[in-house]
Amino acid sequence: MTAFARPANAASMLDLRPVGYVIGLLVAILGLTMSLPMLVDIAEGNGHWAAFLEAGLLCVMIGGGVSISCSSGLRPGLTIQQSFLLTTGVWVALPAFGSLPLIFGATDLSVTDAVFEAMSGFTTTGSTVITGLEHLPKGILLWRGILQWLGGIGIIVFAMVFLPELRVGGMQLFRSEAFDTMGKILPRATEIASRISVIYVGMTLACMFCYLVLGMSVFDATVHALTTISTGGFANYDASFAVFSGPAEYVASLFMVLAALPFVRYVQMLNGNYTSMWKDPQARGFLWTILVLVLVAWAVLTTIFPHHWEKSLREALFNITSIISGTGYASVDYMQWGPFLIVLFFYIGLIGGCAGSTACSVKIFRYQLLFAVMKVQVQRIRSPHGVFVARYGGRPVDAEVLNSVVAFFVFFVVTLGVLSLALALTGLDFTTSVSGAATAVANIGPGLGDIIGPAGNFSTLNDSAKWILVVAMLVGRLELLAVYVIFTLRFWRG
């Protein structure tokens, strides 16, 4: 069963009612979730709960109204055009409405800062413009965590249901795995999303329990479990995860790795295929990459801190896992670790986790496919008359997939360059511009340098730079091409 339907004529492709119905419904649901931080603020006895009540009512009224008015246009499936509009529309609308409690409430954020914070949350980027986090009402801190948690499960479903059908960035490689392989067990995409959601909730509860055992308060354990499993990285303290330095770093590292692995494999493991995770080439590649990077960083740190081998190992493991998974927690200012590790951290952030996980950035499978293409090209140069085929997981890969991956890399590099230049034009220095562009489009969290590095945040940037980063976070989270295609004439012509 496919989630998409091809219309008989181009005119029906312009029907926006199915898109409006889904977006309106999700906005209304978002409004209902605002009751959770509202109840927390009521229990705390502060008056901030009114901000969530006002924002929630607005979301329910506007979202519900749009959904009801568009319900007459419902069809059994969506066209490809409607699907692209829906994915982008959801990631624009929900952060916009999710910013309302930040505007109405005790944070006193401007519209620019509130939208930046909400977009950073929902795209699980983790960059923040708020200082003095520990002094904020608990409702706001919980809302930040909820935004990231919702964005995390949203991107998994998006990656498994929509991207393979939209043929974005080589994701069509996983179409058979998302639907055919699991077809006998979970024949419909909605059932796949349902099973993944159960695993996502279970993993969140397990993470929260582990944090509680290690001494976190119930509130801290809850919020940090939400932002760990979503690989989002919002923390309740300006010092990020450094407040919990110690065994909690090992636990956080474990759950960040688990969240960055493909969730479809967890579903298959629960259905008896216990080796599916290890047989997945991207999962193996991701785990081996982390192991090698941690050992390299640990070796360097032991030369800097020769008498603190356990601490060096723990900090190398935690911070590398945090950056490569796109979580963005920081337990130490790694800008003090020397130029080699600073440059290493920059490139680590451009690797990313696995497709079909909460992780972000380029994704490990695209590098594997790129290396497969390079290997084939070298073989053809050495043996011009030979027949060589790029393979992934032992299977030949279609040229369409390879072309899509190469195109993704080209768009990623060009986007990174354009964003860096745009940020530089706002007056930012070279390091802040380049690392800011990279951390936004790869949805990592902290950048490099004294301003937006692990010891700083994005509050001092000018409004122009913040809006550029808002767009970059959106584009990066939706795999670039899912957004860019909307701005082509061919898209609107059907």
From TrEMBL:
Single Gene Ontology MF annotation: metal ion binding
UniProt-annotated location(s): Cell inner membrane; Cell membrane
Keywords associated with the record: Cell inner membrane, Cell membrane, Ion transport, Membrane, Metal-binding, Potassium, Potassium transport, Transmembrane, Transmembrane helix, Transport
Source organism superkingdom: Bacteria
Membrane spanning residue stretches: 21-43, 49-71, 83-104, 146-166, 198-219, 239-264, 285-305, 340-365, 401-425, 467-492
Amino-acid positions noted as binding K(+) in the UniProt annotation, renumbered to this chain: 124-125, 232, 327, 443
InterPro entries recorded: Cat_transpt, TrkH
Membrane topology category: Multi-pass membrane protein
Pfam families: TrkH
Family per similarity comment: Belongs to the TrkH potassium transport family.
Protein role: Low-affinity potassium transport system. Interacts with Trk system potassium uptake protein TrkA.
Protein name per Swiss-Prot or TrEMBL: Trk system potassium uptake protein
